Amino acid sequence: MDTRRLRLLLALSRRGSMREVAEELHVTTSTVSQQLAVLAKEAGATLIEPDGRRVRLTPAGRRLAEHAVTILAAVEAARLDLDPDAEPAGTLRVAGFATAVRRSLLPLVADLAQRHPRVRLLIHEHEPAEAFALLAADEIDLALTYGYNLAPATFEASVSAVPLWSTSWGLGVPDWSSSLTSSASPTLPGSAPLALPGSAPPTLTGSASLALSGSATSRDLAATSCAPTATFRDLPATSRDLPAAGGIGVASDEAEGAVREPSTAIFTRYRDEDWIVNSRNTADDQAVRTIAGLAGFEPRITHRADNLNLVQDLIVAGLGVGLLPLDLPTIPGVRILPLSDPAVTMRAYAVTRRGRTAWPPLALLLTLLQRDSPKP
Q: Which end of the chain is more exposed for a tag (fewer CB within 10 A), N or C?
């Protein structure tokens, strides 16, 4: 079989239109039709069938298109093997989640520009499922994805995954430590005092229940005044849950020589709160449900957001609790409680299509990514 015809079939499997395939590969529509007819004779099977004004692959055509991915990758790898020391040159299309882009890719930009000016990076921000779809469609060369120890990432046989770095996560909760040193409860501008998550509302003579102003932001909560009659019945019972607001808000039991609570005990303390999970990936949802299940309850998942800053804002606004990286700088009003037994660990991966890693620009980027990643 001619690899050029296999390439036409693979393009048709993605586009669904001979005209679009012709435009993509800069040939005529009749050429596409003729070459696919020859390929069908070579394969001894019907590969396409009408679908309205378009065409679609038959089951045999889909199977051959799947084989074409492997065949074309092997041919490309063989060609590159003839010149393994070629100077990297070309455009690298990378899709990854925001943290990986900031932590892994951006630090390499200056080095690539100086040492390998013929390599160009195109960066797209995507969650793993979206990145995998782009990789399968051959619309990107590299995907930066992740999984949790409690919700492991899975990879199809058509891709290769290289582990990079990992980071520990904890439970982000409201931090009302400043309220304990004040005689009042937090209020929003122009509103009644705020009832803390899980607590009884403040009892103020002549005041109404809280009505959030449309102009108020979550950060207003950390900086506003308080009323002396607020109650704090559901605040964390120990002072280690209540550090000064702002900075890296992580509890440090070891510094006090205390035994860290297991994750199930921490989750149980917040079992009656609303929970916040990712809106574009299910991995942290699974991790939350796993620990909550071990603790004997079903979490009330109410809010979904994929931006960690927005998750913090929701926490400060008293709308729930959720998983956050332990090394994430926190805004005032957020505290991250370390989790152990079981711990929650996220691991990042560099994922490519099999047979592609010998391409010099991609091989270079993978080397740089692994060089700058701490060993597991």
A: C
Using the 3D structure, point to which of 50, 81, 112 is the last residue of a domain: 81
Q: Which residues make beta-bridge pairs with 353? A: 159
Burial of 265 (0-12, 13-18, 19+ CB in 10 A): exposed
The two tokens of residue 88 are 């990297």
Question: By the 8 A CB rule, do 343 and 168 touch?
Answer: yes
Contact (CB, 8 A) for 242 and 177 = yes
Contact (CB, 8 A) for 144 and 350: yes
Judged on CB neighbours under 10 Å (0-12, 13-18, 19+), 206 is: exposed
Does 161 fall in a domain? yes
At 110-156, the pLDDT tens digits run 889 999 998 999 999 999 999 999 999 889 999 999 999 999 999 98
Do the domain assignments include residue 249? yes
Q: Which two tokens stand for residue 272?
A: 């009656």
Determine if the pTM surpasses 0.85: no
Distance CA 172, CA 284 (A): 13
pLDDT, tens only, 71-99: 888 887 777 655 666 778 889 999 999 99
- Quote the CA–CA distance of 330 and 175 in Å, as a whole number: 10
Does residue 234 share a domain with residue 181?
Answer: yes
Write out the two tokens for 363. 């091989």
Tell me the residue range of the domain where 74 lies.
3-81
Residues 103 and 131 occupy one common structural domain:
yes
Strand partners, 312: none
Do 190 and 258 sit in the same domain of this protein?
yes
* 328 shares a domain with 313: yes
In-domain check, residue 376: no
Peptide bond before residue 186 is cis, with ω within 30 degrees of 0: no
Domain count, the chain: 3
Taking the C-alpha atoms of residue 43 and residue 64, their distance in angstroms, rounded to an integer, is 9
Does 125 share its domain with 177? no
Residues 182 and 326 in one domain: yes
Q: Among 170-179, 208-217, 344-353, which range has the highest average pLDDT?
A: 344-353
